Amino acid sequence: MSLRDYFKGPQYKAKLVQLEADIHKLQVKHSDLQAAAREIGLLDLQSVKRLIQDEEDNLGRIKSQASAVEAQLDAARSKLEELNHQILGAEDTVLLESFALYRPKYQFVNSLEYKKRLDEIREEQKQNARSLSEQFEAFENEAEQLTKSEWKRLRKDAAKLALRSFNSESEFCIDHVKFSNVEKMEARIRRSFETCNKLLAAMKVFWTDIVLERKLQELHLAHEYQIKRQAEKEAARQVREDQREQEKLEREILEARAKIDKERRHFTSVLAKLKMRLDIADDQKERDDLQSRIYELLSETSKLDEEEKLLEYREQNARAGYVYVISNIGAFGEGVFKIGMTRRLEPMDRVDELGDASVPFRFDVHVLVFSANARALEAQLHSHFASGRLNKVNERKEFFRADLREIECVIRANYDAVVEVRHTAPAEQFRESLRLAGPVESIQTAERVTLSQSA
Hints:
By secondary structure, this protein is mainly alpha-helical. It has four domains: 3-40; 44-130, no CATH class; 243-316; 321-454, no CATH class. It is 73% helix and 5% strand. The chain contains 16 helices and four strands. The protein has a four-stranded antiparallel sheet with strand order 3-1-2-4. Helix 8 (182-200) runs antiparallel to helix 9. It is elongated, with a radius of gyration of 52 Å. The model has no long low-confidence stretch (mean pLDDT 79).
């Protein structure tokens, strides 16, 4: 079929009709859309363009504002980094100073220049203190024009300032109070309270006595707290010392047991050999000698048994020990004695420890007695001579000013065994030192000892 025939045929006509129908439908739909657009005003293209332009302008302004904010953030970040560097530098300085690597703020050559600058700064502070009244007089006329609320606030601020001054003075007194200055610190707090009240009197402001009483209570409480802490420290130190003494006693007992066991094994071996020789010996004289040596070894073995029983007794009885009375004329003078006790197996070891490098001369022993209840005997002596105790605060310091004859009487009254007392102290090193020092220095040393004794 030719192309001309096709366009004249029924198929083409049907398709053409269909296309015309579709075009009509599209025209109707277009008309509907135009009508709807007219109703909502969307056909005004200029209005739409203006709206778009306005939005673009707003967007541009927002972008410019965002750029400005970003610039500010960048500036803040740089400032923050600078501050961080400063903080790190300051922390590094503080850390170095905490390790005693202090960075000097002044570069003076010698101490005289530092002293001179200190005097200048203190003089400047005095001048500033003298000019305070002149500085306040400049506000005198303005103070008369204050309102009631401003005047009330001024009085309140002045009271706070005075209270801070009083608290600062009181805190210093509380932090530095001791048993020797508690009355002085109390008087200082009272003076500060009275001074602050006088300064506030012009403003008709007065503190009640309860403010002072609370600070004084805090002062006395801090003082007693320090005393109690010191007592607790001394008690803990005594416990540690007792523990060390107990450990030394246990070591001594172990060493003594080891020594006894060694000697017992030696005696057992020798006894076995002597008995074998005795069994085969024919000569009577040789037999008598062997028998005599066997008896001697058996006697030594029995002594070891007694020593072992004594060790068991000392190990089981915690109250048993030695009470000693010793003196050190070269260090403390005549008439001063240390009265103590030790649970050591060899009490002279303890006496030698007391005479170590802390004192110039060794101690001389006047009384050394073993007691089944050494603590009780020591406590009785301490109680009897309490008035002569040199250190009345720390009872661990067991030095007393007493008469040796009276000490002997108290021991005999509370101890049923024989007591041997040495009334004269040899003080060999002290007396030899006086001899070597010459007559002049010997007299001076004797005078110092006399003064310490009279004190």
